[in-house]
Amino acid sequence: MRSTFSANASDAHAMSQAQSVKNEATPLVHRHFKIYKPYTCLSQFKPENRRTKMVLGDLTDFPAGTMAIGRLDKDSEGLLLLTTDGKVSERVRSKSVEKEYWVQLDGDIDAVAMAKLQNGVEIGVDGGKYLTLPCKAYKIEGEPDLPAPARKPRDLRHGPLSWASITISEGKNRQIRKMTAAVGFPTLRLVRVRIGDIRIDAMQPGDVIELEHAPHN
User: Fold this and answer.
1) Phi-psi region of 14 (alpha: psi -120 to 50; beta: other; left: phi over 0)
2) Do domains 29-96+199-217 and 98-195 have the same CATH topology?
3) 0.70 surpassed by pTM
4) Is 207 among the catalytic positions?
């Protein structure tokens, strides 16, 4: 006849094994979202010292551990991906995933300036000079299908405006703005419309959509 101690130890071992099998059978399920980051919203969840701007956590009640994949600066808007999986974040931020932006420019951009953008231009990064990688860029004829701007566009009496699509695979700080300024056409409005094969579609500022699958598996 086995002792009570031995029986208890065996039962505890069996329960431990069962729990281990259960844990292996039910891995952590990560969640992923795409949002339309509004103009002036900060790409962070915690407010700065003084709460003056909207943050991502104001859009909806995201699960614990949610992080923004990359960022859009305060004055930019459009597609931003969020995830609870750090590996997904690293994969999407890599140079293998394209990011497309539609930019409204001060002036009517010409073919010469567009070619410079396509071939790479010199911009300032971290106090030094950096030559951007070749990219895809073309002029958008007319007004693109986007939500109404959060601020009134510049008066056309002060000169023409134009739109361009610029697709890059890198992400230096304020890179698109620096690139268009380098060719003589400052950016007035910047909207990210695509990350890899995920598009902004008909989303409106502040919209949040949960994705069924991790971005770019």
Assistant:
1) alpha
2) yes
3) yes
4) no
DSSP assignment string, 126-159: TTEEEEPPP-EEEEEPS--S-PPPSSPPPPGGG-
| Cross-strand pairs, 48 | none
* Residue matched to tokens 């739109």: 163
Domain 98-195 classification at class level: alpha beta
Structural tokens at position 204: 């409106």
Q: Which residues contact 185 (CB under 8 A, 6 or more apart)?
A: 105, 106, 107, 109, 113, 162
At 31-44, the pLDDT tens digits run 999 999 999 999 99
Helical (H) or strand (E) element with 89 = helix 86-92
**Structural fold of domain 29-96+199-217:** Alpha-Beta Plaits (3.30.70)
> Residues 11, 61, 73, 126: which is the catalytic one?
73
Q: How far apart are CA 56 and CA 4, in angstroms?
A: 56
Amino acid identity for residue 199 in this structure: R
